[in-house]
Known about the structure:
Layout: H1 14-64, E1 73-78, E2 86-93, E3 113-124, E4 127-138
Amino acid sequence: IIMIRLRKKKGFTLVETIIAVVLIAIxxxxxxxxxxxxxxxxxxxxxxxxxxxxxxxxVEFYRNSSFSDITTCTDTSLTxxxxxxxxxxxxxxxxxxxxxxxxxxxxxxETDIKKVSLKIFWDERGSLITKKxxxxxxxxxxxx
Length: 144
C-alpha cells in the first residue's frame, strides 16, 4: 500500500471569507443606523433645549416687568426668536377665585393677576413641535 500524505492547507476557504465579510457588513450597517438615529435624537434635544431657554427668557422678562407694562391681549404676538422657532405670547387677566372665567372679582373691580401664556413651536422633519409655559403675575408681587 502506497501512502499518500495529504498536506494540511493553511488559510481560509472562499466560503469562510464570504461569511466573514457578510458578518462584518451587517455589523457596520447596524452601527451606521445607530449613529444616524443618535444624531437625530441629538438634533431634537438641541432644539428642545434652545426652545425651553427662549421660553424661560421671556417668562423672566415678564416677571421682571412692571404690572402695568404687561398689556392684556388675546392676539398672537410674534416676538423675535432665533430661526427656526416661532413664539406666541398671550396675556390675559386672571381671576384665581372665579372658576367660570370672568375677569372680575365679586366686588366688580379688576383682578390684580395677569396670566402670561407662552408657546414656542418649530418644524422638525415635517412635524410641528410645541413647548408651552405659563406664569401668573400679581400687581403686589409674590408676597404682598
